[in-house]
Structure to design on (225 residues):
């Protein structure tokens, strides 16, 4: 099935470090979303981006909607142990559709 | 306010069998989508239901079918199960309309032996 290209695949960092991950696509999306998934749980929305060039923050998280509408990045500043999990980017073609195209995920591990 | 609830949480079936998974949307939500998440992969869109009709469909065979009830709850049916159908099946709900985000349930883990 169709998927976005998300990188890196995994990261192992020290507590307090900053983290950056990104997502690219050959297709244009109207909405970019970033989710976090913990073991045994469904994805939880972190940040939603609706406009090309938009930069949005949610606490220590910052995400941007690329100008070309084909990419997005997520930064996490001053990582803490509870940031551990799998982060997914997702693209949405229309603003009123249920179909999300997900990346393969970035597994983040934080060493205390 | 209950979020999206799915049942059962785990299920084991054998090849060729049929399975039904259930989803209750978040209160106030009228649109339900289903996703399949294979181990180590991102979720893949199966289909979306709104007003008791399938509105969008992903690249899944006809063995995958669904239903939405008047109370907005939904079922996912898979016939003639294959080993490759083993996955986490996620239900997501939202209120129909622009910029309304989807909330995911914890999923049903299906194992096909």
């Amino acid at each position: 099935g169709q998927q976005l290209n998300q990188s890196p695949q995994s990261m192992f960092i020290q507590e307090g470090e900053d983290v950056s991950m990104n997502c690219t696509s050959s297709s244009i999306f109207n909405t970019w979303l970033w989710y976090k998934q913990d073991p045994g749980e469904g994805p939880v929305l972190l940040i939603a981006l609706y406009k090309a060039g938009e930069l949005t923050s949610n606490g220590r998280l910052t995400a941007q909607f690329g100008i070309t509408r084909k990419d997005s990045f997520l930064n996490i500043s001053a990582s803490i142990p509870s940031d551990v999990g799998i982060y997914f980017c997702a693209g949405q073609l229309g603003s009123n559709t249920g179909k999300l195209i997900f990346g393969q995920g970035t597994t983040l591990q934080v060493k205390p | 306010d209950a979020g999206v609830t799915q049942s059962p949480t785990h299920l084991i079936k054998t090849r060729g069998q049929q399975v039904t998974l259930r989803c209750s949307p978040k209160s106030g939500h009228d649109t339900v989508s289903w996703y399949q998440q294979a181990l180590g992969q991102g979720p893949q869109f199966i289909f979306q239901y709104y007003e008791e009709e399938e509105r969008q469909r992903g690249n899944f065979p006809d063995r995958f079918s669904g239903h939405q009830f008047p109370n907005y709850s939904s079922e996912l049916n898979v016939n003639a199960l294959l080993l490759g159908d083993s996955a986490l099946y996620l239900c997501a709900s939202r209120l129909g309309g622009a910029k309304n985000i989807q909330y995911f349930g914890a999923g049903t883990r299906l194992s096909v032996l």
In short: The interface with chain A takes residues 4, 31-33, 35, 40-45, 48, 50, 55-56, 58-59, 90, 92, 94, 96-107 of chain B (CB under 8 Å). Chain B has no helices and eleven strands.
